[in-house]
Design goal:
Largest sheet: 4 strands, antiparallel
Distance between the termini: 28 Å
Shape: elongated
Helix content: under 10%
Length: about 130
């Protein structure tokens, strides 16, 4: 299995009519649990074979006024921790088998340096 996500980030303030680039920083801290399962197609019983856990952290400084190829600088961490195979399998919670999945539950928030945070794109499911 190869599960790649392709996030995109707007350069401009997402709650403004202007397209002026003002992005200064990107910060992400996400953790994931993934289960490798075998399913009996006759009974729909699932057997957890492995449970994996990993975390992705990212901090990038952005200067949109610099030339292409020089606008972003990775701050930390420079290297990511490798996924960990847990020594004891965790049961799959029923909520992991139904919507919302991660893509339908994510939210785009605008957190200005001054003022209140604002939900720009709400989750597809609550």
């Amino acid at each position: 299995m190869n599960d790649n996500f392709y996030p995109s980030v707007t350069w401009a303030v997402p709650v403004s009519e202007s397209n002026v680039a003002k992005l200064t920083n990107i910060y992400r801290d996400q953790s994931f649990i993934t289960w490798l399962v075998a399913t009996n197609i006759s009974t729909n019983d699932m057997i957890v074979l492995q449970t994996l856990h990993w975390r992705m952290q990212l901090s990038i400084d952005v200067n949109p006024h610099r030339p292409l190829g020089q606008r972003a600088r990775l701050r930390e961490p420079v290297t990511q921790d490798q996924p960990k195979i847990l020594s004891k399998n965790e049961p799959i919670p029923p909520s992991a088998l139904v919507k919302p999945n991660a893509n339908d539950a994510q939210v785009l928030m605008w957190r200005p340096k001054y003022g209140q945070p604002l939900v720009v794109i709400p989750p597809k499911h609550r």
